[in-house]
Write a structure and sequence with these properties.
With about 400 residues, this protein is mainly beta. The chain is built from 3 helices and 27 strands. The chain is elongated and about 95 Å long.
Length: about 400
């Protein structure tokens, strides 16, 4: 707690103009006449919390006035970033909208007016102790991108998040058309905590989406550490493209804006074992081009180790759509892959050029490993809407 006894000066020209108004009243400028100080004009006592050089972070900045009222409060850090806030009716108390972040020096500029009308501007400062542990975020999609209609907003945390409700309150999704959606907490394939926001149904093409994650100064909870920065990303939804994969009939169909574009013969995962494909909705995560695929990385021993062209990742567990010329005799008539959706070089090249991250692959088939889980890529679409909403920490 930092107390400031505001003594009224004799010269108004020494006053500093307030930087951010918190009420309809204004302080006098240098050209205003100096109010006369009466015998009953007591100084205003201002209290600022937190205070000191090792203040505890994670609490709002609070400023109170006794013997007068606040006319302006401005709180800035060393980089000039402001903490906005609101004053109570009557101007006796001001509270910041956000909490003080760890390891940050703040300057508090306070303008007051006594009961007799005399104004003064003064300053206080405090510094919060550094975070002993920092939590960081990996987020998708990247800013400025155009993505498919099934793309979720996905945040994966370096450390555990126990204060999930508190964290979720600081996550705000804004859309250009008021799209209905919900956050859901899940376990990422990596084993880390993750929260995704998905619409109730596929996005409408052309929708503009912005994430503002104002996490700076938020505590993750035990073993998680503090967030020491904010995150933001904006992206746009592209054409409505859906890839319908029928593993029983051994083909995929690209549908754009409700119209069939092209049917491609494919071969899916070999039935009856670990090489089967997943079913359900898998979202195209990334177009990775030519990559090395090694069966040992997905638990299939030494079945293969080769360079693969036109690779399109569908799950973290290793299911791709890609060119598979070595399987040419099976395209359109049998599933004989190690779990991926293979096609000819020519078809793969054409298909690779058409799709974009965020396009849904709706996969059906009688003999599969099961439905893609929410954390195995972007499998949230396989969870019924009401069940997905229940995964929010604020429900």
């Amino acid at each position: 707690m930092h107390r400031i006894r505001v003594l009224v000066p004799a010269v108004a020209a020494a006053l500093l103009a307030p930087l951010a108004a918190c009420s309809s009243s204004t302080s006098p400028t240098a050209s205003d006449p100096t109010p006369a100080r009466s015998s009953g004009d007591r100084p205003v006592e201002v209290t600022v919390t937190p205070a000191g050089h090792r203040a505890v972070p994670g609490e709002p900045v609070t400023v109170t006035a006794e013997g007068g009222r606040l006319t302006s409060v401005t709180v800035t850090d060393a980089e000039g970033h402001r903490l906005t806030g609101k004053a109570a009716a009557g101007g006796g108390r001001w509270v910041s909208d956000r909490k003080a972040a760890p390891g940050t020096a703040y300057t508090v500029t306070v303008a007051t007016r006594t009961e007799a009308g005399t104004a003064r501007t003064t300053r206080a400062s405090f510094t919060t102790i550094p975070a002993d542990k920092v939590n960081k975020v990996d987020w998708r999609p990247g800013t400025g991108t155009t993505v498919g209609v099934a793309q979720p907003v996905s945040l994966v945390f370096d450390n555990p998040v126990r204060n999930r409700a508190e964290v979720e309150r600081h996550l705000r999704i804004t859309t250009s058309d008021g799209t209905e959606g919900s956050w859901g907490w899940i376990r990422d394939w990596s084993g880390r905590d993750r929260v995704d926001w998905r619409p109730k149904t596929y996005w409408k093409p052309g929708t503009r989406v912005t994430l503002n994650a104002e996490l700076n100064g938020t505590d993750s909870g035990p073993d998680g550490g503090w967030f020491v920065r904010d995150y933001t990303t904006s992206f746009t939804i592209g054409a409505r493209q859906i890839v319908k994969v029928d593993l029983d009939r051994h083909h995929l169909l690209l549908v754009r804006d409700g119209k069939p574009v092209r049917r491609i013969p494919v071969s899916g995962g070999t039935p009856g074992g670990d090489k089967r494909s997943w079913r359900g909705t898998a979202v195209l995560m990334a177009k990775e081009g030519t990559i090395n695929m090694n069966s040992e990385t997905v638990g299939l021993g030494d079945a293969y180790d080769k360079m693969v062209d036109h690779s399109m990742r569908l799950t973290w567990s290793g299911m791709y759509a890609h060119a598979a010329p070595w399987n040419a005799r099976y395209f359109g008539n049998a599933n004989r892959s190690s779990g991926c959706i293979g096609m000819s070089d020519a078809d793969a090249a054409w298909f690779y050029a058409q799709v974009r991250p965020g396009d849904p692959f709706e996969i059906t088939g009688a003999d599969t490993k099961g439905v893609v889980e929410p954390g195995n890529g972007f499998g949230a679409w396989n969870v019924p809407w009401n069940e997905w909403r229940s995964k929010s920490a604020l429900r």
